[in-house]
Specification:
The protein is mostly helical. It is about 80% helix and about 0% strand. The two termini are about 35 Å apart.
Amino acid sequence: MLKHVGLFRLGKTFLLIWFGQLVSLVGTSMMRFAYILWAYEKDGKATTVAMLGFAAFVLDILLSPVAGVIVDRRDRRLIMLLADLCAGLTIGLTLALHLSNSLQIWHLYIAEAVLGACDAFQLPAFSAATTLLVPADQYARASGMRSFAASASQFCAPFLAGALLAVIHLSGLMVMDILTYVFSVATLLLVVVPRPAQRHHNDSESFWQQVSFGFRYIARQRGLRLLLGYFVLINFAAYLTWFSILAPLILARTHTDEFALAAVQTAMGIGGVIGGLAISVWGGPRRQIHSVLLFTAISFLLGDFVLAVARSVPVWALGGFLGSFFIPFIVAADRAIWQKRVPPAIQGRVFGAKGAFQVTMAPLGMVLGGLLADHFFEPAMQPGGLLAPVFGWLVGTGRGHGMALMFVCTALMGITLGLGGYLIPALRNVEAEMDGREALAVPALAEVEQRSKQPETASDVYSG
């Protein structure tokens, strides 16, 4: 059956690494779901939950450009191995604190920050390795498989974590997460990841000049620069509500019903799983930019807006499902565009810079989301509040309805950004052939790009 849908074309090495990452993601997602419940039960504030996400981005942003240089210089499989080992050790230390009854919320912030640092190395290494592991016409399908893994973990984690917490408690979930990292490391030990046949290193440049290389490359590519800026704004809107206050929204409006939250997050996971499967089988449209722009608008409309105006768990679950269904299409298309436009020899640095810049506004969105919810929108949407007479008819009034109004705002932002992107020619045509003058803007890059277009033999790929 896999031959008929083309998944075998992704290669056994990629599929084995992907499966190890899937297992690890399930363990980490269960752990993070348990963290949310544990932290929210501590003080019941949306800001506390949002700060967990914020902490995960701090070192991720700071280290991504540095990680990109290391990814281009070193064995990408080894980098992924070390990242998984570091993440597993971090969970182990958190487990020790919990067993000694010393675990505090600020410990979770530190743990999330370290896990974010691991992601700063893991993600560009996996992305750069994928470029060499699968054919160019399979980039979107491979990205779809990665999105499927992320969504599958989201689908499995809430109910698994909810059920297991009652039996094995938080410490048991931590042990399970550690075991999933062990499994991921084991799969990486079984494979060989090729290195680029051509490398682009200038020995006369300092390390920090190498770090800035990715930023300089992106700055000279107008289409990629606009695409990156587009995702910066989209991420800000998404992290303002979807990734920061969705859990407090559901918990506040259901009197802290953990199973209601699990139902909504599971529906989101199912939507992402089906969307990931769809893009994995389909591979996306011929022009991937349509998936980025059009599906962004649809996702915010059917996701954020439905979550805002819904008044029951089934409708919240429907909004979560619909919003998540289109995310794998958007992410896969974005990755495919970058993998096609950036030569393999410099993808570590470019993807590291991209990763750092793309999530720049995400931490601000998460913190701002929590603060706005607790100190403005929630009080304003209480009966008699400032905004209650104006928007009460749309989202209702009372606890949780201020956060619902915030979802209305981000829905409008996402729809405007998605459809408005079609009005910018350079963004709309980002997949067009790169202008040679742009390549020359970065020293020696034109030569690297020319060589990267030449056919490679198997011995070339594994050289160096």
